Amino acid sequence: MDFINAIILLLNYIFVPALTYGSQLALGAIFVTLIYGILRFANFATGDMMAFGTMVTILFTWYFQSLGISDRGYVLVTGENKYAGTGKELLNDPRVRSSFLGG
Known about the structure:
4 helices; 2 domains; 103 residues; mainly alpha; elongated
């Protein structure tokens, strides 16, 4: 169980934030590069495109939250059973372990 918790912590606190921040920086760099490549002028007024990307991110976040996926925990629904909690709570719950992990 400690290995799974370590993987979850690594993903939640290192991988996902690094991926989102790196994507934000790459998006801005791509816009500046495209504008410079076409106009031969470094126009840094690409805030509207960055705002569009922010809007898309917020919409996807709301969509995932409507499915029960959020940064605070997960809700697993199987048949008539509904399990909610953080990753550690779910893995330690005997109902979840017997339903999903086979033990």
